[in-house]
Design goal:
The complex is a heterotrimer of chains A (660), B (324) and C (176). Chain A is of the alpha/beta class. Chain A contains 17 helices and 34 strands. Chain A is elongated, with a radius of gyration of 32 Å. Chain B is α/β, with parallel strands linked by helices and 324 residues long. Classes of the chains: A alpha/beta (660), B alpha/beta (324), C alpha/beta (176). The interface between A and B is medium-sized, with 21 and 29 residues.
Chain lengths: 660, 324, 176
Amino acid sequence: MSTVRIGVFICECGPNIKNAVDLDGLSRFARGLDNVVVAERFALLCSLEGKDTLAKEIQRHRLTRVVIAACSPKEHEHTFKQVMAQAGLNSFLLQIANIREQCAWVISDKTRATQKAQAILEAAVNRVARHEPLEIREIACLPDVVVVGAGMAGISAALTLAQKDRKVHLVEKAPCIGGKVARYEDLFPNLECASCVLDPLLDAVLHHPNIQLWTLSEVKNVLGYFGNYTVEIITKARHVDLQTCIGCGACVEVCPVSVQNEYNEGLDTRKAVYLPYPGALPNLAAIDETHCLRWQSQDCESCQQACPFGSIDYQETDRNMSLKAGAVVIATGFDLFDVTKAPQYGYGKIDNIYTALEFERLVNANGPTQGKLILKDGRVPESIVLIHCVGSRTPRYHQHCSGVCCSYLFKFAHQIRKKIPDATITSLYTDMCLPGKEAQPFSDKIAQKTGLKKIRIKDPAAVTITQDHGRPRVTYTDACDASKSVVADMVVLAPAITGTKDASSLGTLFDIPLGGSGFFVEEQTSLAPVSTPIEGVFVAGCAQGPKEIQAAVSQGQAAAGKILSQLVPGQKRALEAMTAAVDTELCSGCKICLGLCPYKAIVFDDTQQVAGIEEVLCRGCGICAATCPSGAISARHFTDAQLGAEIESLARHTGRENRS
Amino acid sequence: MAHKPKIALYWCSSCGGCEESVVDLAEDILAVAEAAEIVFWPVALDAKYDDVARLDDGAITATLINGAIRLDEHVSMARLLRKKSRLLFAHGSCAHLGGVVGLGNFFTNEEILNRVYCDVPTVNNPDRVLPRPETRQGTTVLKLTGLHDMVRSLHQVVDVDYTIPGCPPPPALVKEAVMMVLEDRLPPKGSIVADTRALCYTCPRKETRPEMLEVPSFKRVYEIEWDPEQCFLNQGVVCMGPVTRGGCMAQCIQANMPCRGCFGPVDNVRDQGAKSASLLASLMESTDEEQLKKIVETIPDPGGLFYRYSLASSIMKGRVRRRP
Amino acid sequence: MTNDFEPIIVGFLCNWCSYEGADAAGRARQCYPSNLRVIRVMCSGRVDPQFVFQAFKQGADGVLILGCHPGDCHYKDGNRQALKRYTLIKSMLDAFGIEQDRLRLDWISAAEQEKFVQVVSEMTERVRQLGPLMPRANPLKKLDSNRSTRIENDMRFLQRKHKKISTKARKIESTK
């Protein structure tokens, strides 16, 4: 170290610090500390005048380091770093002594507050003497974006980005886009026709020059960091030429294989070559290799022969693609709670018990019954029971409230009433969750119009459904603790909305933890709801948590907005300066650090047999530095020497000597 | 050959293993004796305190002191030899770090004396007679040298030029230290005659160390039949290799025993035991506090294990000494 | 021990939750014992066991490590590393004659100013009961002499860390 010239600037913070701490005593004390060349008090350092004086003082005294004794670093460290830069000093040669939040405001006795302020100040002076200037590096970034999932949230994100001239890779597992919403008949609260609202959007996605759609595709691996991601995907062979197929369905008619149709929730069958459901976009057939006879070593060529456009290609193989992008949006949607795991509901064993998604297909004009609401035997149901909170709001299955079920069950009541004017509709609920400006008026209106019978029950998890002469009998405990039961023709369950089954493998790839019920964890619940702990990876829609369409769209757009503001073409991104650093002369290559880094920022150099830090990935937590058994990793700006100086000053500084 | 360099060897609180490491030079010792004059080596040669005291200051080219500092006598001999020697070597773990002897700092002198002179099963001392500083027998007064309440390393008592680590140091390192002097190729003062990196760097098993390692419990060497090719940590056996300076040619590992840490920490580590805790904690496979406690219980006497050689020169240096 | 003893508690507070919690206590003007001395670290996972022992050796009567609640760590699971180390350090304290209660790990979120105040108060009271960790006869004199050797030792440690300085290390003249 050449000459260390430390200036100590003590802020009165109006009356805040002035009245609580003996500031003249503190200044005198500071002047006696090692390397301190000036120590003065000022009225308000964060004011324009204060900052100006500070910059001048730094230059006048040729200071090389600065300690500011004032409020929490959380409040004004940034402000004073800027002053440092203005005065020509590296902004890391600053240390804040927090004598407001930690002294002035929490210690009523002035002597004690002053003693503690002395300790804090001395620690700051001794620490700053060991500070090193740090350089803030910048990297070039790719402006393109990968969006995983082409449901409402993914589509919203993709369109928002594409409209601002960003190239978007939209990766969708299914052969068609629009997610689950595309398979609904009506949307609450306005009861608009879903496909009427949705189709123009889906069309925009399909035809937007900036959106590259990858259907039948899944993410296999993710490499890189914010600004420079490589997302490796596998695109399953469709065996149908995208350019020539017009979705006429000629192939479907001749296919000899029938399998359960997952796009109708397994309520009917489809062929091995299929269009997922009428109106699915893009309107293209696809061959399902797991069921097509050709992949069961049989020599069927029916579809190829039937196709008027020669679009069928049996030779096509799965392709691995590497997509380059600066940021990623995860919008993989939700699954419903598997009701077979709660056997008391009789789901899967007793006929005419449906989940909400199955019901959506039953009432859909493009669904398995062409929209006819009928029972398994073709009769029209005379009584239907709707059950809220299936598998949710209970420690037994999922603790959360999915937040949308109450609303859509009212929509169901409306749909039932429209189709069967004289059916009895009963809803078994415990609490109604109808937040926001639309849901309550919507439900009131429907309840009145449909004559919905609402029965408040004790515990939805305690509902049991048994078979009564072939019909489901629903037994429940009502709000007055009486055991009751009702026999119905049809029961519709509203199961908890959960994360998707493949969320955990996706989470592992992106290194984003999943919370309870399989939703991706956001960076901060209230303030950073679409960011994740991994920079440059965003989460939107039901992948983040259960929500209505409006909220999913908002999140998709919000994620796009974050990306548009953080990833500007031509603009470089500043990297964390307080990263870890490996002294490669000391590293023994023990590899202990590799498994500990939360961001996989430590790489092993096989030739040198030592560890190294990928600085673009490092976020500066210092876990590796604390663990490195060789002391070869240092945490910049939180080095052993810097923290050691603080520890020594604070541990030693008794104030005991002054105690009378 | 009128001015052969003079060499001295001395032992303080030591087991004699370091002396063995000199004897283990075998024929090479003859070459040393040829090139240098061994002026003082109480274990092997008959020389007295006065022989050293009579020498001019700085007359001895190099002195190797092994053993920890525990008695007044050790301090005065160390100071005398320091004065008479141009170069002073801390020889072996005890002189370097306090060594196994330093583990005494986990106990008070009273506890140690009672244990050694009264309570050990093989001792029969019903009157609990303990060594005393002074014993009078008629007109004769027999004085014992003072017993310190702390074990210290040589560094904590006198200025040391170089250190030969190890318990005991491999003969090759002792030879290297002596040759350094004889051939006049001295490294910067304070150097440790060993590697700068930890043992893992030269460990023959390092290839088997995985990038991600968590163990459900730690094993002691007798508890499992361990794979002679696999990284010890990978097998859940506590190995101090990552927290220990290399340069020992991984002799223990070659003999299929985990490293016990006798070379002490590398330069950037102040406290080998604390770093060992950090190392082993990072390997514990659990997120649950109770489960973690169970894993910790599979490490008997963690203090003694982590500080086996370095307690006296650790941050705490030993048990907290309270005022009586 | 007389209860007018004023212990020193060195606290390592993580930047994102616990330090914020301490600030929140400040903003709410919640008085708590002045014995806590705070060191801000980015993550509780930065706390090296060496720091804990250094604090004890250099005069702290108690050491407090505060981090984000499990699952809320800003760095995903740095607090888990802190918990693992803490559990192991705890097992070493007996050998050093340091009472278990002198070291405490707790989770304080940015909103938990009340809990922060409670933890600091409890810790201070407990350590006050336990008394000073190190002997403090004639504190002024003893502290000063200890202090200079401590500084020397630590400067030596620092010097070793700075390669520049170590390469400048005096080379012994060959023969004389």
